[in-house]
Amino acid sequence: MASLGRFLRRAACADRQRIIYFCPACDSAHQIALAPGSPAWTFDGNIEAPTFSPSNLCSWSGSDGEEVCHHFVRAGRIEFCPDCTHAMRRQTVPLPEFPYAPNTYGGIEEDS
Ligand SMILES: [Zn+2]
Q1: Do residues 49 and 73 touch, judged by C-beta distance below 8 A?
Q2: Which candidate, 25, 50, 61, 84, has a CA 20 to 30 Å from the CA of 92?
Q3: Are the beta carbons of 16 and 33 closer than 8 angstroms?
Q4: Are the CB atoms for 16 and 31 separated by under 8 Å?
């Protein structure tokens, strides 16, 4: 796979390829994992306007209880679901450019 461009990064964690993108609602990165392995998402290969399927449901324990960020990434836009606990729920926004250069964020690598 060539460079993943402005919006995406990838990492191989636990022997699985993961695609990483930046969430403007959480101000942090989210990821999907590709097959083989489970769970697995599909990526249409469009690095300028990516689509992942199915949705990505992220949850974690925050200072105010359980935080949820549930969203679709379709055609380069993040569509936040109503069950998000953040203020961007129900909104659809363009996927932001990944704010960190390749190989500078938490061990995330990008092949050139
Ligand atoms: Zn998020």
Answers
A1: no
A2: 61
A3: yes
A4: no
Residues around ion ligand 1, judged by CB within 5 A, are 23, 25-26, 69
Q: Is the pLDDT score of 100 beyond 60?
A: yes
Is the separation of the CB atoms in 109 and 11 below 8 Å?
Answer: yes
Compute the average pLDDT of residues 62-90.
96
User: What's the Rg (C-alpha) of the chain?
Assistant: 14
108 C-alpha vs ligand 1 centroid, how far in Å?
Answer: 18
Which of 27, 15, 35 is CA-nearest to residue 98?
27
- pLDDT tops 50 at residue 2: no
Write down the pTM of the prediction.
Answer: 0.88
- Gap from CA of 24 to ligand 1 centroid (Å): 7
Please state the length of the chain: 112
Q: State whether residue 6 is helix, strand or coil.
A: coil
Q: What mean pLDDT value characterizes the chain?
A: 89
**Average pLDDT estimate for 73-81:** 98
Predicted local confidence at residue 1, as pLDDT: 41
